[in-house]
Design brief:
The protein is an alpha/beta fold. About 40% of the residues lie in helices and about 15% in strands.
Length: about 450
């Protein structure tokens, strides 16, 4: 991946989330000393900006001492950010129109890095969105030395998104000078009469045409295929949600302390903590709830966008989880709405299920996908294992798919989610885990906990 970026001034890297794209780019730009000639502009979605993904990646490695400025706030605040000296400037796609207008001919960036470049899929020469039009004005300036696109590996369902992205690399040389030329050659009307779908031969032909500047990183080259590839995704709670969570957790630990080792007495509090980690809290036993935050929804959207149209299996614990996901992702379905055979066609991008209902007897999901997302996880280890086995390594091999299985677990940082993760790795009892968590908190809460 690093060799590919270094050798191609305009290129793309297709890889699943967690494959190391961010670190690879940082290493390459340091190695070829390109930043000595001028700063890089990194364009990211809102979720990546909010999560400070690039800043966190720099902090992970001793080799990286890059300075980073995040451009955010109102126009005056953004303008002040641009005056600060840095190696990397991070900006949200939504601010591109402002940035291009504000800088005009005084364009300082020599490298453009488009993270989750599927955001450019709507680019058209005469139509398209304002963001891509703004980027198109500067992408082919003579002083732009590198353009790097980072995104997930496109599945057949995601091939139609390639033309807009690739235009920023070759102006349509490989896939057609216009969107219409691209679609008329490789696509036909969809099975349901809405939109378009690729011909059977399209994926191979398109990949062959772009392979010189687009590198696909196959996870099968670096992860085992005989067990699921577990990928924890840390989610930070927003400030208000953190306050509510800390208050609920404190009450939970007080109940534990007052009842000595009777952890079951705090079960209700534990459930409330898990609910808050997911983004809601139930009001009553009838299922009414209040939404608290969307941090996990943002993280899930980030993963799905990077999957490039690959269908995904999603696990959840609470009915409110499902309702919130349905609101964010209208295309999400359950096995109450479609059959396993329907999902196997690849026409439905997101299938959600509770692990308790995804047990034995459900077969065929592995033909649609090899990727699962745990929006929320539960204490039951058997259910947890049954869920991933619906698309697990054994089923993949039995169906003739030689590919790794990837499982993304959304874990709210410093919450009961981490206790559930501890349960999976240590197999300790729930009571032991809760008491250990309480004891760890004693040091930070001191006598206040006991009073």
């Amino acid at each position: 991946m690093m060799d590919h970026i270094a050798e191609h001034p305009r290129c793309a890297v297709f890889a699943l989330p967690g494959a190391g794209k961010t670190g690879g780019v940082l290493a390459v730009l340091k190695g070829i000393q390109l930043l000595d000639e001028g700063p890089a502009l990194v364009i990211v979605p809102k979720g990546v900006l909010k999560d400070r993904t690039w800043e966190k990646e720099v902090a992970k490695w001793d080799d990286f001492r890059h300075s980073i400025v995040t451009i955010k706030g109102d126009p005056a605040q953004r303008a002040r950010c641009l005056k600060r000296k840095a190696d990397f400037y991070i900006i949200n796609y939504d601010q591109l129109v402002w940035l291009v207008t504000h800088l005009g001919d005084n364009w300082p960036f020599r490298t453009l890095i488009c993270d989750e470049s599927t955001r450019l899929k709507g680019h058209r020469l005469r139509q398209g969105g304002q963001r891509t039009k703004a980027l198109a004005k500067v992408a082919w300036r003579p002083d732009i030395e590198r353009v790097i696109l980072l995104t997930g590996t496109p599945s057949p369902n995601g091939l139609k998104d390639l033309w807009g992205q690739l235009w920023f690399l070759d102006k349509g040389e490989r896939l057609g000078r216009t969107w219409d030329a691209f679609t008329s050659r490789w696509f036909r009307p969809s099975w349901d009469g809405y939109g378009i779908e690729p011909f059977e031969h399209s994926q191979a032909q398109i990949q062959d045409r772009i392979k010189d500047i687009c590198l696909t990183v196959d996870p099968g080259d670096y992860v085992p295929i005989d067990k699921p590839n577990e990928i924890p995704v840390e989610v930070e709670l927003p400030p208000r949600a953190r306050e509510l969570y800390n208050d609920m957790e404190r009450k939970m630990f007080i109940e534990l302390a007052e009842n000595e080792i009777e952890a079951v007495s705090a079960a209700g509090r534990v459930n409330k903590c898990l609910q808050l980690a997911n983004g809601f809290v139930y009001h009553d036993d009838q299922g009414s709830y209040a939404e608290v935050h969307e941090a996990k929804l943002d993280a899930m959207e980030h993963i799905i966008d990077e999957l490039g149209g690959l269908p995904v299996l999603v696990g959840y614990q609470y009915k409110a989880d499902l309702a919130m996901m349905k609101k964010r992702f209208p295309q999400l379905v359950t096995l109450k709405e479609i059959s396993v055979a329907d999902f196997a066609t690849g026409r439905y991008p997101i299938l959600a299920g509770h692990p308790a209902s995804m047990g034995h007897g459900i077969d065929g999901l592995q033909d649609a996908t090899n990727v699962a997302i745990d929006y929320s996880s539960g204490w039951n280890l058997e259910y947890d294992q049954q869920f991933i086995e619906r698309i697990g390594p054994m089923r993949q091999m039995q169906s003739g798919h030689k590919r790794a299985v990837h499982r993304y677990r959304l874990i709210a940082v410093d919450t009961a989610d981490e206790m559930v993760a501890e349960r999976r790795t240590t197999k300790a009892s729930v009571q032991t885990i809760l008491l250990n968590a309480m004891n760890r908190k004693l040091g930070s809460l001191g006598v206040d906990l006991l009073t």
